[in-house]
Design a protein that fits this description.
alpha+beta, two-stranded antiparallel sheet, 2 helices, globular
């Protein structure tokens, strides 16, 4: 599913802190995954978050 619609990815404060604490090589993998989600948010290991209609999580690595 490749869409011409641009998506906006918002990481929760807790997620941003976790990324900042991760080793550099993992930070880069996470940034790449977040960037990929902006163009196609439904690729990879994606699941909708419970009780949130428009929030998803993507498993990386």
């Amino acid at each position: 599913m490749n869409s011409s619609t641009a998506w906006r990815v918002n990481a929760a404060k807790r997620a941003r802190k976790a990324i900042a604490r991760a080793p550099r090589h993992e930070q880069e993998r996470l940034r790449i995954a977040l960037k990929e989600m902006e163009s196609d948010p439904f690729t990879g290991d994606i699941e909708r978050l419970k009780h949130q209609r428009t929030a998803f999580r993507r498993r990386v690595g």
